[in-house]
Specification:
Distance between the termini: 58 Å
Number of helices: 24
Organism: Shewanella sairae
Helix content: 40-55%
Largest sheet: 4 strands, antiparallel
Structural class: alpha+beta
Subcellular location: Cell inner membrane
Strand content: 15-25%
Family: Belongs to the PpiD chaperone family.
Main location: membrane
Membrane topology: Single-pass type II membrane protein
Length: 621
């Protein structure tokens, strides 16, 4: 109960349902309800349009989801136009799939009644308080989402109808016990092998590569030598945090600030509360009557703590004699708050109603408000004054930076002189490996913009973070193109040498394999018994080869496999059955296979609906 009161609508469940609702309904093309438009549709599904505005809304929601999921990595990925275009295309395909499902549901006459929608809303945990539907909470969440109750129910109807169809089509998928067991036994198998590595390194000493070979390889593989666009920047950085390091605040200044703002350093009055709770339940009149009966017991002399233990429906606090916690004014619900702070120490209130039920509240103890001593808050005040002075200085210098870099657009020297700072220079970087300072998508985009690279002008003042800005200009720029042969000659020669060394190792491995097949002698091989599928102490290429080779019959199976630097000869002597199958593993595999089967069914349904219908992409055309 106490946790519910404290957390309110900020709990994990509430946040989860907000995310689910946004994701669910963002892809339904909400903007299509807003009226007609002359814009070209992003797609047309059997004559019904998916507007570009609906696509853009869904795309922005997907961007937000990816940013939350990937964190800092998303900044780098989002700078790649091709990657973001693929994300947008996948969002469009989801919108198309949803539209196909909606149309098919309509053709089949699937319906969701008002009662079903009401039941779904009433039983949704995010809309409940202490397991009971809370209309105030429901309305608050809708307001936070920006929905009216009617439009939300319409969206629920669309979503539930669609899920009804999907559940009908793919929800009947199942996994036979033997399937999961078969997969588990395959995964649990081990192999007894012998192997020998033929290292390519010794062959390198006798290999030479001519200039003609290098030139021929270069001419035949130009696509391998494409150089991405590279830039190096000059920039001026202005950061309030750096300015704060040089700010000095005297004790007198801190004392004066404290004297002028004493109200900010007053510790609020706190009260230790206890309560007896009767939850509303289905019969509010009965709950009120019970609360008044409890109040009568207290009036007749019953001990508050003992009554709380036996009568309070807040189990956690009831076990503590009704005790909750220390509260400042404004923390609890208004009715609870008002009653608590009207009591003298040791007194209890009349019956008070809140959204959680009927309470009888007691003030166990009172901690009066007090003025915090200057010594206790001095450090905090000094930091505040430093930050304030630094921010004031930052805005002053930011205006100087903006004016000078604009008035003298072909150099940063003048702006640096006016600010008393140095012009810094980045190393060369591409769009995929920017320095951390320029990893944000908008800064990276500006770094490769025509204004900076082609016109050679200073950029505008660009925000890195609050009170942290830069102005940039190009230092050097190399357009994307093919690298010169001279720049890659050494790398090509080394590659050709390695390929020839690997070929020599392959031939020797073939000879060793032939000898083993003839004699069966593996005396100088490394023996590994019960090699597991995910073994870490043996080269992964050897492990994969061992589990791909045919099961031996009257004699071992022998084969070769390429390694990073050479070849290996692998002799498979025996396949060992799994040593028991864990029940938890079987359950996990069953769930995984069921999910895979359902996903395949879903994709097949969408593909079938696409094949039977007409899906056009006018914007792409």
């Amino acid at each position: 109960m106490l946790e519910k009161i404290r957390e309110g609508s900020q709990g994990v469940i509430a946040k989860s349902i907000l995310i689910l609702v946004i994701l669910s309904f963002a892809f339904t093309g909400v903007s299509s309800y807003l009226g007609s438009s002359t814009e070209v549709a992003a797609a047309t599904v059997n004559g019904e349009e998916i507007s570009n505005s609906a696509l853009e809304q869904a795309y922005q929601n997907e961007r937000s989801r990816l940013e939350q999921q990937l964190g800092d990595m998303f900044a780098t990925l989002s700078a790649d136009d091709n990657y973001m275009q693929s994300v947008k295309q996948s969002v469009l395909e989801r919108l198309v799939a949803d539209k196909l499902l909606d149309q098919n549901a309509a053709e089949l006459g699937l319906r969701v009644s008002d009662e079903q929608i009401k039941a779904a809303i009433m039983t949704e945990p995010a809309f409940q308080t202490d397991g009971v539907f809370d209309n105030d909470r429901y309305q608050a969440i809708l307001r936070q989402l920006g929905y009216q109750a009617n439009s939300f129910r319409d969206m629920m109807r669309t979503d539930m109808t669609r899920r009804q169809l999907v559940a009908t089509l793919v929800g009947s998928e199942f996994v036979l016990p033997g399937e999961a067991k078969y997969v588990a036994e395959l995964q649990g198998q081990t192999r007894d092998i012998d192997y020998k590595v033929i290292d390519a390194t010794p062959f390198l000493a006798d290999i030479s590569v001519t200039d003609e070979q290098v030139k021929n390889y270069y001419d035949s593989n130009l696509a391998q030598f494409v150089r991405p666009e590279v830039v190096s920047l000059n920039y001026i950085e202005l950061n309030a945090n750096d300015l704060a390091k040089d700010v000095q605040v005297t004790d007198a200044e801190a004392q004066a600030y404290y004297d002028e703002h004493k109200a900010n350093y007053t510790q609020a009055e706190k009260r230790l509360a206890a309560h007896i709770l009767v939850q509303l339940g289905d019969d509010e009149d009965a709950a009120k009557a019970k609360a008044e009966a409890i109040y009568k017991q207290l009036q007749d002399g019953a001990d508050f703590a003992e009554v709380a233990k036996t009568e309070s429906e807040d189990t956690f606090s009831g076990e503590q004699g009704g005790q909750l916690d220390w509260f400042e004014a404004g923390v609890m619900e208004p009715e609870f708050d008002a009653a608590l702070f009207a009591l003298n120490k040791g007194d209890y209130s009349n019956v008070v109603k809140t959204n959680f039920g009927y309470h009888i509240i007691k003030a166990l103890d009172i901690q009066a408000g007090a003025q915090a001593p200057f010594a206790d808050v001095k450090e905090k005040i000094v930091a505040q004054l430093k930050d304030k002075q630094a921010v004031d200085k930052f805005y002053e210098l930011q205006q100087v930076l903006a004016d000078t870099s604009y008035e003298v657009p072909d150099t940063l020297v003048d702006a640096a002189k006016d600010l008393g700072v140095e012009v810094k220079t980045t190393p060369e970087f591409t769009r995929t490996n920017p320095p951390e300072l320029f990893s944000q998508p908008d800064l990276l985009q500006e770094a490769f913009s025509s204004n900076v690279l082609l016109d050679g002008m200073n950029s505008d003042v660009l925000e890195v973070a609050p009170n942290h800005v830069v102005v940039i200009r190009v230092n050097s720029h190399k357009a994307a193109g093919t690298m010169d042969l001279a720049d890659v000659r050494s790398a090509i020669a080394n590659r050709l040498k390695q390929e020839q060394a690997n070929e020599a190792a392959r031939k020797q491995a073939q000879e060793v394999m032939t000898a083993v097949e003839a004699s069966g002698d593996t005396a100088d091989f490394i023996a590994v018994n019960k090699l597991a599928r995910f073994a870490q102490d043996v080269d992964g290429a050897i492990v994969n080869k061992a589990f791909a080779m045919a099961q031996p019959t009257d004699k071992p199976s022998v084969d070769t496999v390429a390694l990073a630097n050479g070849y290996a000869v692998v002799v498979l002597k025996q396949v060992n059955a799994a040593e028991g199958v864990d029940t938890n593993l079987l359950d996990s595999l069953t769930q995984r296979l069921s999910s895979q089967y359902s996903e395949n069914d879903y994709r097949a349904v969408i593909a079938s609906l696409k094949a039977k219908g007409e899906v056009l992409y006018p914007a792409a055309e």
